[in-house]
Design goal:
The chain has 409 residues and is an alpha+beta fold. It contains 16 helices and 13 strands.
Length: 409
């Protein structure tokens, strides 16, 4: 049974809650809790009867779901140990103290981290595209020498392969990809450009004829040179200067008793040239790679997956998450460390997206960070402002959030 007992210590009265039992025929205290002075007990009584809202002082709200998810991956990969980061002291205030490493140390970290992320030594290879002026001989190869491609998304396409092709001073494997669907779209674009150029040349020709007939007298008089430049400007789009021909002639005519030259424009299309462009250049892409062991289909697929890399650069320019800028550093060493941290963060987020994708959670990096950032801790402080009591609470979380955090919690 519990009782309330009073003790006088150095002239001060204190109260205790005491539980006692008989042991060996004698009463003995088995549980004793200090309660405080009479004033403290009265304060507790008043607090207990007061509305909880009146006792609340303030709250601290922190987002932690995204940080926990990434730090878990960070730790599982062993990157924490490689970088030697002290978790408890690694804060925004001490960031540069904890990352004050030499460039040589950072390069060593990069090698170790890449080995962990990529699962070992993975040398870099390339698949790139060539400009038309770099591969004219390949574009001229007859279509009878092309081989049909096989695979998803490659239906109806064919390739011509050549080993030992020199690109940017190095020997590489080059393939010419012929894509009928691409050709169809490009032909439509060429036809639109031709219609636009033809209309503009026709308008220019009519204006020149009107001036030569005396119907137009105002404005600066055109010359053979100015008309030639205008026609070249109209035909500046790709292929137009080859598809169209034009000739600027001059007609003499008397004006106010003086003989003047009036330029005229003639133009037309080169059908044979247009057919040659459609057959030889449109619908074709020339690729080169140092991976001669890959099939043509694998090379084409790798090149078309370049949008992943482009998306990565766009992601790192995004001001919502993982943004490299703004960059408030001037020293080369700190700038390189800053970029290193940003690229590492993007790589971790990409791995996180891949892990969640395997669990059936399909979302972009931005969506993942936005959703997980909604998981917050709320520290609410009650009671005495000088010595408040803290109560920490967490949100229930959505099904999406719980599935994402399942390996951790």
């Amino acid at each position: 049974m519990g009782t309330l007992r009073k003790k006088t210590i150095k002239g001060n009265i204190y109260y205790y809650y005491v539980e006692s039992k008989r042991m060996d025929g004698k009463p003995k205290n088995v549980n004793q809790k200090y309660l405080g002075t009479a004033e403290a007990l009265l304060k507790l009584k008043n607090q207990a009867s007061a509305p909880l809202q009146d006792e609340a002082l303030y709250s601290h709200i922190k987002s932690y779901g995204d940080v926990v998810l990434l730090y878990d991956l960070f730790a599982r990969l062993g990157i924490v140990d490689i970088m030697g980061l002290p978790p408890k002291t690694f804060s925004s205030q001490s960031f540069w103290s904890n990352t004050a490493v030499s460039l040589r140390q950072m390069e060593a970290m990069e090698d170790d981290i890449l080995a962990l992320i990529d699962g070992g030594d993975m040398p870099f290879h390339y698949v790139g595209g060539l400009k038309k002026n770099q591969c004219e001989a390949l574009l001229a190869v007859d279509k009878s020498r092309f081989t049909p491609l096989e695979g998803d998304g490659l239906e109806g396409q064919s390739t011509y392969r050549e080993s030992g092709f020199e690109a940017y001073g190095q020997k590489a494997t080059a393939i010419v990809v012929d894509n009928p669907k691409l050709r169809e779209g490009q032909v439509q674009g060429v036809m639109r450009d031709m219609a636009d150029a033809s209309n503009r040349l026709e308008e220019l020709s009519k204006r020149l004829l009107a001036r030569s007939n005396g119907d137009v007298r105002r404005g600066r008089a055109p010359t053979v040179e100015s008309v030639t430049d205008s026609a070249k400007g109209i035909l500046s789009k790709e292929f137009m200067a080859r598809v169209f021909w034009f000739r600027v002639t001059s007609r003499k005519q008397a004006v106010n008793g003086k003989e003047k030259d009036f330029p005229l424009l003639e133009f037309g299309t080169n059908t044979s040239v247009l057919n040659e462009i459609i057959d030889r250049e449109l619908g074709k892409t020339v690729l080169f790679t140092d991976r001669g062991d890959l099939t043509d289909g694998q090379i084409v697929t790798a090149y078309r997956n370049a949008w992943y890399v482009e998306h990565g650069f766009r992601q790192m320019k995004d001001t919502s998450h993982l943004s490299v800028r703004p960059l408030f550093h001037w020293k080369d060493e700190r700038i390189k460390v800053h970029i290193f941290i940003c690229v590492l963060a993007f790589r971790l987020c990409s791995l996180l997206r891949m892990e969640l994708d395997r669990k059936g959670i399909h979302a972009s990096i931005d969506a993942i960070l936005d959703e997980m950032g909604k998981i917050k801790t709320v520290d609410t402080f009650f009671g005495d402002p000088d010595r408040p009591t803290r109560v920490q609470t967490f949100p229930r979380g959505s099904t999406w959030q719980k599935r994402s955090l399942k390996p951790i919690i």
